[in-house]
C-alpha cells in the first residue's frame, strides 16, 4: 500500500493512548473438555533418551509421537476439525449437553480420523458444514505432490479415498504445485488456493477437471526481470483471508507471503492486484521499534471489514492495518512470546453488537498462554494484552472462538531442537519432525467456557 495513496491521518478513535490502563479483569475460563494428542507414556527426558539411544536395538519400531497443529470450528458450530503432525485430520463432534453437564473436564473422542498421503499446510472445512446434511460434511486439504483433495469428515472406511480432487500443476512441466493456503467462503461454490507466486480460483463442482478457473500470478513472470524489482510480491502465499461482504456484495482478498509482503485482490472485478506493500520495517517506521517477524503465516479481517490483522512467525506483535480508513498501520498488539517457526494462529471476535467498541483478538503464545486484546481498532500505537490465561504447557497452535462468543477451543503441541552438542546423533530418531528435534510431552485439544468477568 503506497504511502502516497494512503491518507496521512488516522481515525479519531485512534488518537487515544496506545496502552491500556493496566490489564482488565479477565473472565473465568472453565475447562469443559479435553483430548490429549496421545495416550502413551511420555518419552524419557533428554539426557536419558540420549544415553539409551545407543543401546536400543535397530528397527524397534518406535512411532513418532503426534501433536495437534491446528483447529477450526465448522460453520454450524457443532464440530472441531483438528490437524495433527502425523498427517491426520480428526473431527470432534461436541456433546450437545457440554455446557449444561455437571461433569467437569470431559474427555473428547474423535468421531472420525482421516489419514492424508502427505503433510499439509492447508485444511479448511466446508462453509456450509451441517450435521443435519451428510453431503455438506466435507473439508479441503492441500498436500505436496498431490492434487487438492476433498474429503468427507466422517468416512466409513479406515483409509478413505477423497470424494473429489482438483488438479494444481505447473503447465510447463506438469509437476504438482504445493498449496500453502486455502480459503473456502460461503456460499461455498468456489475456493481460492495460494502457493508460490500465484493464486488459483477453483469451482468446487468441477472436481477432476483440468484445473482452476482462474490463475492470478503475484509477480509478472517467474523469468521476468521485474520479479525482483519491486513489481508484485514474490514468494509463497501462505496466508489468505476474505473480507466481509460490502453493501454491493463485494469482498477483498488479503494475501500474505513468507517473504513478508501483503497484497489485496478484488477477484470479482479484476485479476490485477489492488495494492501491494512490504511489512519488513513497519514497526520501525511507525512506532520506532523492531517488532521482529520472519514471514506471514496468517491474515484476518475484523468483523466490520475495516481492519486487517497480520500474524508473523518470530514476531512479538500482531500488526493491525486500517485498510478502509487511513490505509496505514494503526497498531501493534504486543506481549506475545512467539520465537518459533511454528504457526501460532489467532482469532478475531466482534465487540458489542452496536459497534460502539472495537473488536477482540485472541492469540496463543509459545509458553502455552492465550492473550486477549480488547477494543482493537480504537487505539493507535503499541497495545498490551487486556488479559490472558494459562491454557497449556506447550505452544498454542490455534485459538478459535465459537460464534456464540461464550466457548473457545485451543490446541497445543510442538517440538524443541536438540542442544548443540547432540546434533547429528540419535536425538531425533523416531521422535520428532526433524532429526535434531523432539516432540514436546504436552499436546492436547481443549474446549473452554468463557464466564463473566471476575
UniProtKB/TrEMBL annotation:
What the entry lists under InterPro entries is as follows: SWT21/TCAB1_mRNA_Telomere, WD40/YVTN_repeat-like_dom_sf, WD40_repeat_dom_sf
Outline the segment boundaries, as ranges, of region: Disordered.
Answer: 1-65
Q: Where is the signal peptide?
A: none
Membrane-spanning residues: none
Gene3D superfamilies tied to this protein: YVTN repeat-like/Quinoprotein amine dehydrogenase (2.130.10.10)
Domain of life of the native organism? Eukaryota
Biased amino acid composition, Low complexity: 1-13
Under PANTHER family, the record lists: TELOMERASE CAJAL BODY PROTEIN 1
Would you tell me the protein name for this molecule? Guanine nucleotide-binding protein negative regulator 1
Amino acid at each position: 500500500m503506497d504511502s502516497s495513496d494512503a491518507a496521512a491521518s488516522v481515525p479519531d478513535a485512534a488518537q487515544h493512548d496506545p496502552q491500556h490502563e493496566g490489564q482488565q479483569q479477565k473472565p473465568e475460563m472453565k475447562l469443559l473438555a479435553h483430548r490429549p494428542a496421545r495416550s502413551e507414556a511420555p518419552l524419557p527426558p533428554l539426557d536419558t533418551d540420549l544415553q539409551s539411544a545407543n543401546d536400543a536395538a535397530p528397527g524397534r519400531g518406535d512411532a513418532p509421537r503426534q501433536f495437534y497443529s491446528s483447529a477450526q470450528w465448522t460453520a454450524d458450530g457443532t464440530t472441531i476439525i483438528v490437524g495433527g503432525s502425523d498427517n491426520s485430520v480428526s473431527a470432534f463432534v461436541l456433546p450437545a449437553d457440554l455446557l449444561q453437564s455437571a461433569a467437569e473436564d470431559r474427555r473428547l473422542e474423535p468421531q472420525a480420523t482421516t489419514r492424508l498421503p502427505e503433510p499439509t499446510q492447508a485444511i479448511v472445512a466446508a462453509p456450509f458444514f451441517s450435521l443435519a446434511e451428510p453431503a455438506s460434511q466435507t473439508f479441503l486439504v492441500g498436500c505436496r505432490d498431490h492434487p487438492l483433495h476433498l474429503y468427507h469428515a466422517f468416512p466409513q472406511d479406515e483409509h478413505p479415498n477423497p470424494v473429489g480432487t482438483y488438479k494444481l500443476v505447473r503447465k510447463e512441466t506438469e509437476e504438482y504445485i504445493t498449496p500453502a493456503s486455502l480459503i473456502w467462503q460461503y456460499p461455498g461454490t468456489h475456493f481460492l488456493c495460494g502457493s508460490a507466486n500465484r493464486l488459483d480460483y477453483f469451482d468446487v463442482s468441477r472436481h477432476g477437471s483440468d484445473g482452476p478457473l482462474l490463475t492470478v500470478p503475484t509477480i509478472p513472470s517467474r523469468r521476468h526481470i521485474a520479479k525482483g524489482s519491486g513489481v508484485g510480491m514474490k514468494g509463497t502465499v501462505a496466508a489468505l483471508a476474505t473480507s466481509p461482504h460490502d453493501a454491493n456484495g463485494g469482498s477483498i482478498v488479503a494475501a500474505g507471503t513468507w517473504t513478508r509482503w501483503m497484497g489485496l485482490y478484488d477477484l470479482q472485478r479484476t485479476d490485477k492486484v489492488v495494492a501491494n506493500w512490504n511489512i519488513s520495517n513497519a514497526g520501525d517506521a511507525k512506532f520506532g521499534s523492531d517488532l521482529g517477524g520472519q514471514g506471514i503465516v496468517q491474515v484476518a479481517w475484523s468483523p466490520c471489514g475495516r481492519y486487517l490483522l497480520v500474524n508473523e512467525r518470530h514476531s512479538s506483535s500482531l500488526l493491525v492495518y486500517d485498510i478502509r480508513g487511513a490505509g496505514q498501520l494503526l497498531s501493534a498488539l504486543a506481549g506475545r512470546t512467539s520465537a518459533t517457526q511454528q504457526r501460532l494462529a489467532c482469532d478475531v471476535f466482534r465487540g458489542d453488537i452496536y459497534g460502539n467498541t472495537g473488536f477482540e483478538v485472541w492469540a496463543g503464545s509459545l509458553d502455552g498462554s492465550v492473550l486477549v486484546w480488547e477494543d482493537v481498532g480504537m487505539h493507535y500505537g503499541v497495545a498490551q494484552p487486556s488479559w490472558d490465561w494459562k491454557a497449556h504447557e506447550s505452544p498454542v497452535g490455534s485459538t478459535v472462538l465459537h460464534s456464540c462468543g461464550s466457548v473457545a477451543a485451543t490446541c497445543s503441541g510442538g517440538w524443541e531442537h536438540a542442544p548443540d552438542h547432540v546434533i547429528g546423533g540419535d536425538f531425533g530418531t523416531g521422535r520428532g519432525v526433524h532429526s535434531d528435534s523432539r516432540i514436546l510431552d504436552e499436546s492436547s485439544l481443549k474446549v473452554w467456557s468463557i464466564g463473566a468477568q471476575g
